[in-house]
UniProtKB/TrEMBL annotation:
Organism taxonomic ancestry: Bacteria, Pseudomonadati, Pseudomonadota, Alphaproteobacteria, Hyphomicrobiales
GO MF assignments: catalytic activity
Name this polypeptide is given: Diguanylate cyclase (GGDEF)-like protein
Limits of the EAL domain: 23-271
Shown chain mapped onto the complete sequence: 435 to 707 of 711
Length: 273
């Protein structure tokens, strides 16, 4: 009976195996990608709508795999989170982003942080180390967290966020409006900025969506929280945001994610005007 069971299992094995093996192969490739220097950062400019100036840039991770080509972050960040690789990978990104920002006078640098990193204990230490290494002051660093970070209301996360803010680092709530308790989090957690998710900006032509965006902008103003609109692609969207007092805009209309040197060129060309 035992061997029969095994045969039955083996009968179903190949299909399951394919998924498991593909996933395992991705994990293995990811694991070796960091020491092989296959990761890179792009930077996307963030504009202050009132002044029209570039006030910051968000670091976005890129994986250039020799066998897979360029893999989008949505396809490897979740795997890196599950394997724990996001901890050294995130540390690398933080350091790399700060070093790039050191050559951009007065520009804020925004870095995405995973829940896994925040819960890993040594996170504040690695932030302090990246700032010291690059010479970038804490006031120029912004950490972007999603609501999933806040979902389990562990004391560790709250303590860590307070500690980071105590250093002068700003905390941004990413993809605002897509989670289960966006408003609740604003009440419980120290936040300096909210980034309205790009799904709202995309549908801003819809009356109800427009009302929501206007309300979030007003909410930010009342709470003293900077509001950034994500995924701004058209003049129409930009004009709506400006007319309604949104503080910052980010998206393809303002600039696509680019190499660090291109951001520097962009800043120079703007300074001439
Ligand atoms: P996110 O933090 O919400 O980043 C914004 C995403 O929107 C980026 O996708 C960016 O390229 C894209 N985007 C910017 N402007 C526009 C626009 O006008 N239209 C459209 N359609 N898209 C726009 P990307 O680079 O593929 O990153 C996807 C996600 O991967 C990020 O979403 C973030 O959650 C995650 N991610 C990226 N880099 C890192 C990282 O260093 N660490 C962690 N933990 N997550 C990262
Ligand atoms: Ca982000
Ligand atoms: Ca976002
Ligand atoms: Ca996102």
């Amino acid at each position: 009976a035992k061997s029969e069971g095994r045969n039955l299992y083996r009968f179903f094995e190949p299909a399951m195996d394919a998924t498991v093996q593909a996933r395992r192969a991705l994990e293995v490739d990811l694991e070796t990608a960091l020491p092989r220097h296959e990761f890179d950062l792009d930077f996307q400019p963030i504009m202050n709508i009132g002044s029209g100036g570039i006030v910051g840039a968000e670091a976005l991770m890129r994986w250039h795999s020799p066998t897979r080509g360029t893999v989008a972050p949505d396809n490897f960040i979740p795997v890196a989170e599950e394997t724990g690789l996001i901890v050294p990978l995130g540390e690398w990104a933080l350091r790399k982003a700060c070093v790039a920002a050191a050559s951009w006078p007065s520009l804020r640098i925004a870095v995405n942080v995973s829940a896994v990193q925040l819960k890993s204990g040594g996170f504040p230490r690695s932030v302090i180390s990246a700032l010291a290494f690059s010479g970038v002051p804490a006031s120029r660093l912004e950490l972007e967290i999603t609501e999933t970070v806040l979902m389990d209301e562990s004391e560790t996360v709250l303590k860590t966020l307070r500690q980071l803010r105590g250093l002068g680092i700003r905390i941004a709530l990413d993809d605002f409006g897509t989670g289960y308790s966006s408003l609740g989090y604003l009440r419980r957690f120290p936040v300096d900025k909210i980034k309205i998710d790009r799904s709202f900006i995309r549908d801003i032509g819809n009356r109800d969506t427009a009302a929501i965006v206007r309300t979030v902008i007003g909410l930010g103003a009342e709470l003293g929280i900077t509001v950034t609109a994500e995924g701004v692609e058209t003049e129409m969207q930009f004009d709506f945001l400006r007319a309604n007092g949104c503080v910052e805009a980010q998206g393809y209309l303002i600039g696509v994610p680019s190499k660090a040197a291109d951001i520097q060129r962009l800043l120079k060309s703007r300074a001439l005007h």
